[in-house]
Amino acid sequence: MNSLLEPGMLVRHPTRSDWGLGQVQSNINGKITVNFEHAGKVVIDGAAVELVPEFDP
User: Fold this and answer.
1) Beta pairing partners, 42
2) pLDDT digits (tens, 9 = 90+) for 4-56
3) Measured between alpha carbons, how far is 25 from 33 in angstroms, rounded to an integer?
């Protein structure tokens, strides 16, 4: 699913609910940069973490 994530999409981290809602900034070669409400900008290794798309925040 991570390969379908595009800039602007909203996601949540599956094990870090305290980070809140995040907006995808980029998705390049499996490295996904997300700006989370409570954690700021985080680079996620898409091979290690499957982000959860949020379609209805």
Assistant:
1) 34
2) 999 999 999 999 999 999 999 999 999 999 999 999 999 999 999 999 999 87
3) 5
The CA distance from 37 to 28, in Å, is: 22
- Please report, as a single letter, which amino acid is at residue 51: L
Q: What are phi and psi of 21, to 5 degrees?
A: -75, 140
Answer yes or no: are the C-beta atoms of 33 and 2 closer than 8 Å. no
Amino acid at 47: A
Burial letters 8-29, b for 16+ CB under 10 A, else e: ebbbbbeeeeebeebbbeebee
Q: What's the pTM?
A: 0.93
